[in-house]
Amino acid sequence: MTRTPRRRRTATLLFALLGSLLLLGVTAPGAGAHAALLSTSPGDAEILERSPAEVTLTFGEPVGTGLGALRVLSAAGDRADDGTVRRTAGGSKVHLGLKPSLADGTYVVVWRVVSADSHPVSGAFTFSVGQPSTDEKQLLGRGNLTKLTEAPKEPGIGLGLTRFAGFSALVVLLGGALFSLLLWPAGVTRLRRLLLGAAVVETAAAVLAFALEGPYAAGVGLLDTFDPSLLRAVLDVQYGVATATRIGLAALTVLVLLVVRRGGRVLAGGLVALGVGWALTWSAAGHAGAGPWQPWTFVFDVSHLVTVSAWVGGLVVLCLGLRGRWSPAESAAILPGWSRLATWAVVLLVATGTFASFREVGELSALFATTYGRLLVLKVTLVGLMLLFALVGRGFVRQHYAQPVVAAATETAVATRPEPTEEEVAGLRRSVAIEAGLAAIVLAVTALLVNTTPAKAAFAPPYTGRSTAGPLTVAVDIYPARKGLNGLHVYTVGAGGRTLDVAEVTGDVVRAGGERITVHPRRKSLGHYEDLNLVLPAKGRWTIELQIRVTDTDSYPTSQTFEVR
Questions:
Q1: Could you give the dihedral angle defined by the CA atoms of residues 427, 433, 438 and 444, in that order, rounded to the nearest 10 degrees?
Q2: Segment among 44-48, 52-56, 342-346, 506-510 with least mean pLDDT
Q3: Closest to 80 in 3D by CA, of 135, 42, 36, 115
Q4: Phi and psi for 488 in degrees, rounded to 5?
Q5: pLDDT at 157
Q6: How far lies 427's CA from each of 21, 160, 337, in Å?
């Protein structure tokens, strides 16, 4: 009884610490693992006096072009590049040669490269020689550039399915082997079929993942899955090497399980080593294998996979063991150890997951404004539900198998423990089964996360600003403040904070360097004027210059500067 308050204080301190770390993780600056285009030459929407010799794209990290596609098209859709591609600056600069003496007009650069984390990154921009083509604005504003960079979705969907299968196989194999090594040495032979099935699934999933990466990165269909040139190109990048290594390790695991019939802890230890090897290749082929903060990102990601496997894989073993495979004596020997193992696994899981959030999310707003952030919130919610059911199991173990502190070493303590009834054991089985089912959903969400652009890289908050125009306050919202089509909202506010109508709102949106776009927001409601067809053709710093006409004789200027991403 004297230790209970101390334990409660320790638990409270631990959860407070983890909560602070999690809050820090989602609010501190981070960095996305996908390659980002930093600059181009010629610049986006730049008008040149003479034809350039090449187009240069500079990325924030080395990129691959073997599976990518780069081309320059004239306004008529004809190829203007000569097909030569070279990389400099360690692979972070890509140069695309152009045909000599390009005719006057606008040209579209369509690019698709592969990040070090295996994900393709694509985009398009324009430049002009002499005078821009007359249809440049229409080309930019109607989504034609986006359509030029679109790729078939089927290879990406197939890769997502292979990741789910591969993650599931990893947690079953590694988690089952860890459970056997630490808690149930005899289980490694009694779980042979389960572990063998996991190794077979991992092998098949890795083979398919390797084959599908080519069509996914190159932006082609499933018919090109086994194209020899694409397979060779995959093997030339980090993702391909890591996945090929996983194929070999998984096949070796299958062989070990088929050949070695005995071994106890020795066999379990060997399977743990192979499972950790699988985890290493998963981290090397994903977000953790690229970007800043190496090698800590890689170490934390591998640790995260191992702790997930220890917890979720252990749940699978529990589901089987509690369905008649364990005698009461085995349950009494195994369950207290599992309770301690699961507790430490959860602590490490939260710590390593916090680091991943710190790196991939960046700021709190990105959690709900990006697909990655919303998936992460869903994953954390599901893990929270798992923890609730885990507490049910922990309470069961403490009630029926934990020995009293004072008499821990006595036979009396064992004899006086209340034996669980069949109904109580059935309740534990249901709790563990639900926990394992939630874990399967978490693995599916994780597979989606791996295939989603990190929140930090995808997040671009809309612009909101205020300025004065004579006696009025003018609020401006530009959504989403990205290159392409945007919505412009202007609110005119008088004394006392009340919105009020004015006679007219007109103005221009001006880009640093001289480009000017005229806007004429129309009245939507009291003091609210909007233009939902504002096309911003280039990234960078822009200024909106508005003229607020209150009466026929009173008109006030105002301006605000914002960033287009």
A1: 180
A2: 44-48
A3: 42
A4: -110, 125
A5: 85
A6: 34, 34, 20
